[in-house]
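Team,

Forwarding the record for the chain on the shared tracking sheet. I've put the sequence and predicted structure together so nobody has to dig through attachments.
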Amino acid sequence: MTLRLYNTLTRQKDELEKLPGFGPNNVRMYVCGPTVYDFAHIGNARPVIVFDVLFRLLRHLYGPEHVTYVRNVTDVDDKINARAAETAKAKGISVEQARVEITAATSKQFDQDIAALGNLEPTHAPRATAYIGQMIAMIERLIAEGHAYAAEGHVLFDVSSKPDYGKLSRRSLDDMIAGARVEVAPYKKNPMDFVLWKPSDASAPGWGSPWGRGRPGWHIECSAMGEALLGETFDIHGGGIDLVFPHHENEIAQSECAHGGHALARIWMHNGFLQVEGEKMAKSLGNFIAVRDLLATESFGGQCWPGDVLRLAMLMTHYRQPIDWTLSGVEESRTILDKWRQAVLNAGGVTEAAPTEFLEQVSDDLNTPGAIRCMHDYARGANGFFFGGGEPQLPAETARAVWAGKLVAAGGLLGVDLLPPEQTISAEIEAAIAARTAARKAKDFKESDRIRDELAAKGIILKDSPAGTTWEVKR
């Protein structure tokens, strides 16, 4: 199976295995993770879900033991520090103590929310504050190589030292200055020069360094953690489209200059923006949706939503396209999952089978909409229908089990479990149906009704037809 992924750097789909230096026994991926000062919203969940599907696919193609996935946690940042200062004042504690409390609590909630959406744990989830030493060491290298300079307690990257700066976003200098909202400061050689290290006064979190007490800039955090856990060059770097510039552009600049020009990542992947019911999500518009609220409150559509329903709703749009998060889309996702699970139950068994058509779709730049169409076909097969022209025909039970197996395997790669708990009691239910059928043939309708009512009390609804009796779980 050929894995082709759209590369923001080359503006084309690249075949991963054909890229220089790729090794199938050591596949490495880094994805920018959360800045932990507030609850994760549904927009934060999109890259986590997208790259979790890719993680699952890489594990399937190359083997779980050959794939390393890093998703960092930013636990020192100016937004965090601002929130910590407010908390410190309210509680009468130090800003550093407040920062630690806030990031610990928010990280824990993030992990719980993301797990509820069906995401696997990454191989590593490094916290930025655990890698301050590596950040300082990388900054020292950049200064030694003439790519960075110290000024008034700051250390800045000298953009003029990197002739191809801007190659990821392909922006003009004027566009980059506007997009970065650069800070005009007298100590900068160039308006585009960005901060690697900044000073901290007594009220702000800080660490000792050759340039005085301070804290790292945002961009250097990811470069240092990626280097420490994946090496100088790794295979895939992912994140939201909003990170292309300046964050990922600056990561490339500082990492390549620290590593003698070696590429930071072979493929750069970015998921599209998310809006809610046709509008940009914002607290001021009253449409800000936290993941925990979708899962645990009745704030969206008047009900709580299962994590797998939210996950599938996200995957129904291709990851590179903007997504409009709507109530109707989530409701459709729930209906689809119910139908797929019912198809598996109706098949009466599951036979392990490779979902080849599904794999072809997801291996083509994570085409999840195309993969979902394949799953609809598998569900039809599991329900007992052939494809193509003419009247639908009921194939052998073994064929239905194969289609059900494909559906279940595909669901696993998408991160949704299509073997609900009821599947474990299917043998018991089928035995009850057989006993009821025998009672009806013997005209023992009292016994037949008893079995039907007993199953109904357990939430199992029987449906009789000329082709036989099927059952479904009342939801």
